């Protein structure tokens, strides 16, 4: 933050409406993803707490596997997939936008 | 394996490592010292030799304080993801969770899910901001626009308290494990872990600490993959056939297919969930790993890879637990005390995965798995020590004591002195707590991390009106409340302090829900009431902090040379 040139850069980024819009867009996306993750997790926990019978029922008549097992494994897979979806969008689209804003301010 | 007469307290220690709260009621049995297992000891010796060779290589690269703290920022996202996963795939999650599945079936899966869900929060809210604002420790991030002395002092205390509780659980766990895995004495484990991890950290800094963790993670993933594969192979890769056989032989029959007694009241369940979810984002030895990658892109990738490997690993432990049910119950003479299923597994309930290793891979593979299980503790303790040492040298010494007027060489020397001191303290604590009940300690570490460290970090980065006073007061309230309420819960009040059953005055398993909310509320109120000149200045700095945290402009390049 010390040099004059970089001070100007920060000033320009701060005043760029694109920056504000970018921060807002990415934050909304992060929060949406965090809420999806929390719903999957707390939904599962509340199911365990309040409706054990539902999780204990069989996947099909005559089967041994309960419906809780694919749901539980599903929560794990959902968590992994959600993380990758966020990371791939952030690492391409968001990073490109952020780089463009910085470039605009430094030129 | 024969059983020596020495009967030792211990099952609870491992349970502790696995993070008790959800499983507080589950009895995983006690551990007893086994006959000396030379195959396992030899395998462990090879692991130590290989990691020492890496430490020598790392030592040549560890010249500055930046190298020591962050491996010079030269770790890739994929490598860092494996290292973070390694921090999570502890002896406890491997032995404890597979043991829980072996005993209760489905409940083990609930446990695994509880541990995994913290990761998305880190990715979506914290990872890149940590990387963009931080340099060596999470205090760098939290104190970015605040008064350095109070905030760093708070962060250092938060770090050291979390590290201490986590460390005690690990050191006691190491002592218990060495008895059942190698058939060696408790004291041997304390000295071995203390000396070896000190060498990793002292000479190899973050580079060695990271690579030890990566190697361990790969070995554990490979071993667990082989075991789960062997189990599925027995059943023609049909999970349904595996479950059918398990239900047939298990004493609890069909009950192992559904949730049992693991979750009793929803408030406790949610509170534990919050401790695990947000505590993960406040554990200093995890947070410091985000400063070892070169940029925000790699920081995000680290979490994605970490989540992937941890999730994969938990699915494997679930299969391994069921594999143990079908393989071990079929051969009680080999795996049970006196060949009697009613007397429990040889070495205790946490040995299910280790016995399964013997069943599917023979004695050599048993040695391999035992060595890996013990190596996990070594790697985690090294990471804890490094993060504690960074808090002492970078936050307390360089920033608070010397106000930043210190050269890299001096700071490096101080961090090495701190490493030695912490190593000695770790061994001393491990010995002091041998006979104590430490079951609550990992959960307490998570609760403090989510009530003290996380709210301060979160509010300082994301809330523009946050001030030094608000952060320090709120964080302290969270930290103290986390400790006090945990003491009042049954797992400490009754199980450790020996007050009569039912006298615990805090009715839930975890304090997190209450202590974390109290911390956030206090930060909010105190910050809002703070209208000092300092507060105005701090609020005025927020826009610049926002630019750096969102775009990485001006971010520390991690490699300082």
Could you characterize the architecture of this molecule?
The complex is a heterodimer of chains A (107) and B (561). Chain A is an all-alpha fold. Chain A has one domain (16-106). Helices cover 84% and strands 0% of the residues of chain A. In chain A, helix 2 runs antiparallel to helix 4 (68-106). The mean pLDDT of chain A is 88. Chain B starts with a strand and ends in a 10-residue tail after the last helix. In chain B, 67% of the residues are buried. Chain B has 561 residues and is mainly alpha-helical. Chain B has a single domain, classed as Up-down Bundle (Sodium/glucose cotransporter), CATH 1.20.1730. The model of chain B is unreliable at 1-30 (pLDDT under 50). A two-stranded antiparallel sheet of chain B has the order 1-2. Chain B is globular, with a radius of gyration of 23 Å. Chains A and B meet through helix 1, helix 2, helix 3 and helix 4 of A and helix 6, helix 7, helix 11, helix 12 and helix 14 of B.
Structural topology:
The complex is a heterodimer of chains A (107) and B (561).
Chain A: H1 4-15, H2 17-50, H3 52-56, H4 68-106
Helix pairs in contact in A: 1-4, 2-4
Chain B: E1 3-7, H1 11-17, E2 32-34, H2 38-61, H3 65-70, H4 77-88, H5 91-104, H6 107-116, H7 118-133, H8 138-142, H9 148-181, H10 186-234, H11 239-249, H12 266-280, H13 284-287, H14 296-328, H15 332-335, H16 352-401, H17 408-432, H18 441-462, H19 468-488, H20 490-493, H21 512-529, H22 533-540, H23 542-551
Antiparallel strand pairs in B: 1-2
Give structural attributes.
heterodimer; A: 107 residues; mainly alpha; 0% strand; B: 561 residues; Sodium/glucose cotransporter; two-stranded antiparallel sheet; 23 helices; globular; disordered N terminus
